[in-house]
Design brief:
alpha+beta; Wheat Germ Agglutinin (Isolectin 2), domain 1; His-Me finger endonuclease fold; 3 domains; two-stranded antiparallel sheet; Endonuclease_7
Length: 226
């Protein structure tokens, strides 16, 4: 049975692993959580991280043999002291920098994507659109293996509704970018079609072998140099 003194206050938090009531400062910052702090206390988080590293066959993290100076940071993967600029920036840590330098950070990302999703492509599709390569291939097959807009074969870009997040189809680079530039607006696209049809310059035969460029609507005449 807990005493009243053991109950957490607004400045305390219970670690679900060690069951200790600790000050919030004993928990790493995490902007994704409601209380702005990590789920486990620092000691338990470190222990869990080390256990995960051992399970994956990664050597335990070491500490720098020499003190880290101002404007520098220690990378536990490559075990080098590097300038802060060599570490990716983040708002999730009080230091404003990730724990690992950019090369090690990228290598860890690739390893995670490969381990959990079988590769970067699958990771990107799952994280961004909520589908995998299998669903991508099935949708492309339903389209006949071509871009759903222009018919170019082997499109590679997933088109989705930016409002709902739902996937609409597979498009080529140009069509996918074009819809984005028009902000997915049918009204803007319809106006663009009207504009193109109404301002298309046409060649009109005025004498045998002599043509003049004319527009069916009002507008500036073509340049003599064109």
């Amino acid at each position: 049975m807990r005493h009243m003194s053991d109950l957490p206050t607004e400045s305390d938090k219970i670690c679900p692993q060690c069951q200790r009531t600790l000050p919030l400062t004993e928990f790493h910052r995490n902007s994704r959580r409601v209380d702005g702090r990590a789920y486990y206390c620092k000691a338990c988080a470190t222990a869990r991280s080390e256990a995960s590293r051992r399970k994956r066959g990664i050597a335990p993290a070491r500490r720098p043999a020499t003190p880290v100076g101002q404007g520098l940071k220690w990378c536990p993967d490559c075990e080098q002291i590097k300038p802060l600029g060599d570490f990716p920036s983040t708002t999730r840590k009080a230091s404003g920098r990730h724990s690992y330098c950019k090369p090690c950070h990228n290598a860890r990302g690739k390893e995670t994507a490969q381990r959990l999703y079988g590769g970067n492509r699958e990771y990107h599709l799952r994280r961004r659109y909520g589908i995998g390569q299998r669903e991508f291939d099935e949708l492309l097959a339903e389209q006949g293996g071509v871009c759903a807009v222009c018919g170019v074969p082997d499109p590679e870009h997933v088109d989705h509704d930016h409002r709902t997040g739902r996937v609409r189809g597979i498009l080529c680079f140009n069509c996918n970018g074009g819809l984005g530039q028009f902000r997915d607006s049918p009204t803007r696209l319809a106006r663009a079609i009207t504009y193109l049809r109404g301002t298309t310059w046409q060649r009109v035969l005025i004498h045998p072998g002599v043509f003049q460029m004319c527009s069916p609507t009002r507008g500036r005449p073509p340049s003599r140099h064109s």
